[in-house]
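Entry 14. Ran structure prediction on the chain below.
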Amino acid sequence: MAVPKEVRVPIEMLGSSEGVVAKEVVTQDGVVILPLGVDISLFEASLDVLVDKMRQSGIWYVSLTPPQQLSEDDIETIIGKVYSDEDSLISKQKARDVVKRVDSVFNNIRAEGSIRPEMVSAMTNLGSSLTEDLLRNPSVTFSLGKVQEVDEYTFVHSFNVAVLTGYLANKLHPGDEKFLQKMVIGGLMHDLGKAKIPLEILNKPAPLTKDEFDQMKRHPNIGVEIAIKAGVSDKDVIAVIGGHHEKWSGGGYPNGRRGNEIPDAARIAAIADVFDALTAKRVYKKPMSSRNAMTIILNDAGAHFDTRVARAMLLSLGLYPPGSIVSLSDGRVGIVISGGGKDLVRPVIMLTDLKKKDGGAPNFIDLKNETSLCIHGYLGHADKRELGL
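Output, structure tokens:
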């Protein structure tokens, strides 16, 4: 794939332009305003401030590389290489077991109004098994499941939230295996209360009415009640179930708590819950890319979300989260495998030779160690994997 030519864009036109920063923009004092290799759309919320800084420094143009396009066949080739490495993922069989267990628990609640203690025990065991996988540090975002049917959403979502919540808990509380395990179990149970919400509300292909939303807002308290009656007593698990819709600045539900009034466990689960909801296919919307979901979460940090948790997610996933398909400055194409830590624009990438029918043997490159290379363009994202339910 040929490297696209650079275009000099007047700073007044950046807001309506697309592309990747081709040359680092630096002030006379050496302060980086726009780093090399970053998509200009990521600065949408702060672009006016950045343009003012450029004017003050006498910078009137920014060099951008126009966005590239990949064919659907090329994207499938790249994605196929990632999902062929089952050793780096939470196994599909385990994911299916978890989803089916959550399904059976919901069905029991709908039929009997509650769950039996042995069902809680089974979910706890699955949570412990997932915890072991997370401590092995697999490719978490590639382990997430795709929703195929409308009525699968709540069950697949519960698995995904458990994985993401556990992953973030491990980043924020390294070495605390007990807390990680409780967060995974809380993630599996976080939507228990939805089992008592009518299906026509849960699966409605249109915005909810005020009355319907009022019913939906009852599910955290209902879930806490169900869990406690079944013998769940751990405060962190209960906090995840009851508090994952609270907002850092207040205005969430069910209790309208704010800031440090919200338990840490609930703050972590809130980001996992929203991230998976944004990247999921629903009957009323297409799935959003992980990159765009990450941008929304960052924009809401300090309002909806605890900034500390949002920062941990950003440092874990980077500005190009795993699953982002990118082109490099030398024309090669690959898929982001893991974030770059504190260097948000220099992740680990798996390169694939698109000229070979099978995609060729994968070649991994860590951009932190390859300073002559940078990401030149964002080309798309890998969807969540099918679990074969």
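The chain has a mean pLDDT of 84. Will compare against last week's run tomorrow.
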